[in-house]
Structure formats: C-alpha cells, structure tokens
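Sample 1 of the test manifest.
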Amino acid sequence: MVLETFLPLVIETLTFFSIYLICSSSLNLQQGYTGISNLGLFFSISSGAYVIAALPTRLAVWLYGIDMDFVYQNALVVSLLNEKFAKDAFTPTILLVITFFAAMAVGWSLGYAFTYLSLRLTETYLAVFFLCVAEAIKIFGENFIPLAGGPNGILLPNFFIWLGNYSWIVQSIFFIVIPFIIFAVYEKIAGSPFGRILKAIRENELALQCLGRNTVSFKLKVMAFTSAFLAVTGVLVSLRMRSVVAGTFDRVDYSFWPWLMMMLGGAGNNIGCLVGTFLCIIIRRVVYWLKFYLVFLPVDIMWLEYILLGLAFMLVMIYKPEGILPEKVHKLKSLNESDHKKVVEQVRL
Amino acid sequence: MDPIIAASIVASSVIGLMALGFTLQFITLKVPNLAHTTICFSSAYMPLSFWLFGINPYLALPLAFLTGSLLSWILYKFLAFLRTRGTGPVGQMMSSLAFGLIIYGVTNIYADYLSYVLKAWARTFTLANADIKLFGEPGIVLLAPISLVALTTFFHLLLTRTKFGIAIRAIVQDYSLAATLGVNTDRTLGIAWFIVGGIGGLAGAVWPFWFSVDPWTGPRMLSDIFAACVVGGLFSVYGSILGGIIVGGMEILLLWGIALNVGVWITSYRPIIPVIIAAITLLIFPKGIMGSIEAFRERRK
C-alpha cells in the first residue's frame, strides 16, 4: 500500500529532477565553464518540443495511411495512432529515434545560428539577446498552428504503448537514464582538455586568443552542442506530458529555475549543479503541495512560487554566491626529481 | 487622428522613456537591469486602482512615479551591496531578474486581489475609457510625446548643467577615479536610479490609457526596450531614446502595413518584430545609430 502510494511520487520527482538536470548542467557548461550567459535556454528546449510536435506523428500518419489532418483532428488521430502503436513496436521506436536526432539537429543549428549572430555583444547583453530570441520563438510556436497546434497545443500518441503494462515503468527509466547519460558526457567534457580551454575562455579570452586559439569557434561549438542536448530535454518533457503546448516553455520554468539550480549548487561544478537541481526540485514540489492546503486564500498561490524563486536567488547571492559546492581549483602537483630531469632533457632537445 | 498613427506615437514615447532608464542604469552599473520593465509596468496598477475607487486615474501618476522610483532605488541598493561583496556583472544581472520576479509575483497577487475581492477586470485591462479629451483627441496622444520631450530635456539639462550631472558622467567614465576625486558615487547613483525608475514608472502608468496591460506586459516588453537600446546604441542615453521612438513606431506601423497586405492574423506575431529589428541591427550596424555616428566622427578626425 505504502509502496503503491509513494513509488509513483518518487519516480515522478526523479523524472522531474532528471529532466531539469539536463537544463542546469547544459547551462553550467555554457555559463559555469565557458562564461556564455544564456537567459534564453528555453529556445533550444522549445525547438525540441516543436520537432516532436511536428515530425513523428505526421510521419506516422503518412506511414499508416491515415487520411486525416493531424493538427485539426488531433484527438482522433492520436487515438488511432495509439491503437496502431499498441500492435507495432518497430514504427514508434524508429520514429522516436528519428525524432531525437532531428531535435538535436534543429537544436544544434539554432544554437549555432543565434550565437553567431550575437558574438559582438558583451556577456550581459548577450544574455538579454538570447532571452529575446527565445521569447520570439515561443510566440511563433504559440501562434503558428501547423507547428504545435498554436495556443491550445497538440496531443501526442504514446510511443511506449506497445510495452503494455510495462509502458509506464520503461518510460520512467528512459526519462531518468537519458539525462544521466548527458550529465556523464558533460562531466567527461569538464575534465578533458576541451573543458580546460573552456575555463580559460571564461577566465581570460584575450590571453587565449593571443596564444593562437580561435575562441569564437569554441563558443560556437559549446552553444551548438548544449543546444542539441537541450532540444532532447524538449522532446523528453513533451513525451512525459504526452502533449506540446508552446506556452509552457517559458522563461521562468526553463531558464530562471535552471539558473537558480546552477547558482545554488555552484557554477563551474557539475556535482554542485546536481545538488542544486535536487534542492530546487524539492522546493518546487513543496510549493506544489502547498497549493492544495492554501486554497482558502483569495489569490492564486502559484504566484508565491515566483516570489519564492526570486527570494531564494537573492539569498543565494547574499549568503552563498559561490554555491553549496564551489568550483574546485585544480592545482598541478609539484614535479618530483625524475619528472624534473625529463622536462629539462626535453627542453634541451 | 488615425488610431494607428496615434498608437505609434504613444508606443514610441513610452518605449523611448523606458529605454532612457534602461540605458542609464546599464552604463552606471554596467549591468542590464532586467527588472526595469517589470517595475515600470507594475506602476500601471496605480491608475487602475484610482479609477476603481472613482478617482481620475491621471491623479495616480505622481504615485506611479514614486512607486517606480522607490522600487528602482531599492534594487540599486541591493545591486550596490552585491557589488561591494565582489559579485560580478552576471550575478548582479541575475539578481535584478530575481527582484523582477518578486515584483511580478506581487503584481499578480494584487491583480488577483482586485479581480476576486473587488470583482474588477484587473488581469487584463485598459483605461482608454477613462482618458480625458484634449483638443478633441484622447489626452494620452498629446501627453505621451509631451512627457517624452519634457523629460528628455529635463534629463539633458540635469546631465549637462548641474554638478549632479557632471558627477554621473564622471562615474560613467571611470567609477574608481570619480570616487577618488570625492564624488559620492553611492548617493549619486542612488539618485540617478531613483529618477530614471520614476520616469519608467510614469511611462508604465500611461501605457494602459491606450494599450491593454496585464502583469506579464512588463517582462514581455523587455524585448522592445532591448531592441530600442540596440538600435540607438548600447551605451548612449540619447541613442536609446531615439531607438525607442524608432522601435515603438516601427512595431505599430510596420505591423499595420504588413497586416493590410497579408491579413489580420499577422498581428499576433507583433512581439517578434523588436527581436527581428535587434537581430538585423546587430548584423548590419552592431554599434547602433549613435555608435555609428561616433565611429563616423572618429574616421573624419
């Protein structure tokens, strides 16, 4: 009984946490490691959501020969597709794979294009530019009905329905494993020579340019790469909700919360980011539950979340600006005598 | 007067006034104040409250000025405090955003309160019906551009003819040197933020006399103000006013022109226009109008 009550709650919280982990760790690679301030994280996330809204279901309609409009007869088409997917494991799986690659390609292209456009801006104005671009993309998605159903959004079929009773648990594992793979990739990058160059760009870009490094190319790579992974987040969020509503990909949920997660945990440290994300998810869950206990108030309690988010951020900036787990400063070990001799010999050669 | 022309006049004037504050705040602390538009438009609820209590909404303008000023000053004090503790520009920028979120939350709660308790239509409102008539035209069509000219002149005189203005310009040029020479940087910047915050509050309070306002209007208008600053020149106060006039005017007139040819459906894409303008400006002349003029002057020398 206890397991039946709490297991869905734990899995739900863990899924929520995993999805946000991609957002905060992507931001960490952009801002924490490279120093690119991006307030418009949600442009990449929404681009992924638009891909899953527009591509796989249309392909499925075409493959199964359903003569209906996916957007305007959405509910009917989704129920038909669910029936087809229940008997066919191959098509939904291959469609999902195509969707992930397409979302990554779109995220990569948008990240590259917008970064290229804004290279002339200083770090703070760059952040504002990304925010404005992301808002523009959101408005486009909210109004362009063929893309994601416009303001009402669009329903998606269940791509895991062929698993029958195991559908829910496999989906949950899928939502948890993919973010952790992405997190592992980020952690690997952070410890690699590429990661050290990113930190050097953040610390002194001019010095690195003087040493012959093309810092612009590195920035473009980081933004394109992280945007591709953020687009995957958009796909995962949409799969989890089984719908795409452009308006839900907003600056508060998919930009400011990841910023707070990163700052709270510690910018420039992936493990710190993980801790920050976990704490923020707990705060959000508490606020969510509070809604049910404070229904007697004459105002919508959801606005408290904004106030809490703002206050939490300000308190972090006052008391713990470096975060709970600040960035580790790696010191080179002093050379022992034999290493020293080797170095001297190499220099002589 | 044609309503489209009138709308573009009001939009240009208000965006120009807000862009003035945004740029001045940026060049003094080197941090974009992301709460600026939220603060400005939170003042829009002052005239609404006056109107709901049967008082002429124009009488709320001094209170709107004061609200904008005080919120702006509190934010300045917080950012200055962070700066003394060594917080960088990005940390300060994010703190301004956090402050904006709090204002946004409070504005929403106030709007909810007006809606639920006073049964007023406060989530989205306009005060066009409460406007006065001046020379047969809605008062705001004349008052908005007059306010822009008057406040820009006041600000110009303040910057060029007073010791306070010299102190601000010194701080903008070199903060540390100005402090070394005896300028009370904290007080001077506090007053500057107070004044431009008030001007922004005033601008936000006159917006509902022509356009509709909801609690999200402030955060949404950040794109317009950013585009105005990019077009005018990121570091020029006068450039940002000019940019505001261009962006505000173009947003209405351009949209109207396109809508006449392709259909009314295009109007829902209106908020994208300033972003497109900013992107084109960044590609063609990234220094903006004033920056390009400066560069041209330098070349002639």
